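G., the chain you wanted modeled:
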Amino acid sequence: MFKRLAQKLRPSKPVYIDRVKIEYGEILSQGDCEAILFFMRPDLKWGGDLNHAILKLVGAELDAYIARNVRKPKSGDVFALPPFNTHYKALFMAILSDWDGGNGFEERDMLNCYRDAINQAEKLGIKTMVIPAMGRDKRDFPHIRFARLALQGILDRLDDRLDFVKIMCIDRTMMATYTAQVQKMKNRLK
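Predicted structure as tokens:
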């Protein structure tokens, strides 16, 4: 009983759920965002449509930069990359291993990716960031759990230095999943 009372009396960190936007569409067409987060496997192979689109947008210099500067990445790491010739102020590359049924450290690593990306963006003075909604591709993440963890990781570090974080969904199922998770979080805050 005293523990619950103490938790109620302790000042809590503000939750900026209203600064998280869930939208449907192509992530690279978001001209109102200063930074983008994308995910790579620890082997740094360019898999997935988004990664190939980013590599095409930036060019071979991105691959060369990563080869020169990213040594022995492990799941959960996030690297701030220069913007190269894009309209972004920064590119963030998060390293995430394949899902192994949740038996490893996948959830911890996911949370670390989102938390660290938000921290680095805020330190660089980034005001707006776009992130892909993930959870239904070849990595076999359970999309509802992934949405919950992604939002938790973002909100754990989001403060008033970022105007918004936009999560872009490429299909209606992901849009519905992320929207439902945001609504659940808003309901818990009431």
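The mean pLDDT is 88.

Shout if anything looks off.
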